[in-house]
Amino acid sequence: MTDSLSSTRSIVKYNQQQFSTLEDEIVIEFPLTIYINNEEFATMVCSPRDFAEMVIGFLASEGVIRFKKEIKDLTIDEDRGFAYVELHSTDIKNQQYFSKRFIGSCCGKSRQFYFQNDVRTAKTSMSSTTITAEQCISLMKKMQDSSLVFKNTGGVHNAALCSADELIVNRSDIGRHNALDKLYGHSLLNGIAVRDKILVFSGRISSEILTKAAKIGVGIVLSKSAPTDLAIQLAEDLNITAVGFIRGSSFNIYSHPERIVLDQTNETKEESS
């Protein structure tokens, strides 16, 4: 199959009371079914690139694995749309909770999770990283400028794992959760310490996105869009700084504002890994 994330097709465009025919670039939607130890586990609808990263990040996010070393073998059949995962363990952790909705509390807090495995895998951030307001704006611009697929199609979500100054890795996908899973998988595959990193995201910060960020382990989430009320509650409880509406030269800080500073001489405090 092609490595492209988009295809070209003829469309009819209406503009100023006229119809015209032109070629347009359309994002590709691809189903990938994951098998674990020869048992069907889940089907993901995604953009057709970075499959291994996405599968590993997804399994870690769902609590099936914690480390890359738990995977004995991973084979991607791109032509047929299958990912075959063989674990060293024959017991799939948390499989019984995969599709069961769960709302509960944790450690006396008012955290509300949709799935029981979220309670086990979402981490309270221990990050002491701080970044300047200008760095927030700069990172968002760098992420948006790096995505040619979004510029050409408008049909993908963008996400990037960053230091205070630079993008470390960026990924695009039609699924917002997939984009984050790809970042998580890349971090696990390459041994990247994430506690001092920043997550930059193009979409709305929903409770699910905030939970994904907590599972990855970052302490700062930057978005060009809005957060939900539940996402802000979770960010407060999980010690995550949530920043939204980063557009032009302004943004809003919704939780733990102490990590966003003005002083250029106090740009970033990074913990030893």
TrEMBL record:
<protein>
    <recommendedName>
        <fullName>Sulfur carrier protein FdhD</fullName>
    </recommendedName>
</protein>
<keyword id="KW-0501">Molybdenum cofactor biosynthesis</keyword>
<comment type="function">
    <text>Required for formate dehydrogenase (FDH) activity. Acts as a sulfur carrier protein that transfers sulfur from IscS to the molybdenum cofactor prior to its insertion into FDH.</text>
</comment>
<keyword id="KW-0963">Cytoplasm</keyword>
<comment type="similarity">
    <text>Belongs to the FdhD family.</text>
</comment>
<dbReference type="InterPro" id="IPR003786">
    <property type="entry name" value="FdhD"/>
</dbReference>
<dbReference type="Pfam" id="PF02634">
    <property type="entry name" value="FdhD-NarQ"/>
</dbReference>
<feature type="active site" description="Cysteine persulfide intermediate">
    <location>
        <position position="107"/>
    </location>
</feature>
<dbReference type="InterPro" id="IPR016193">
    <property type="entry name" value="Cytidine_deaminase-like"/>
</dbReference>
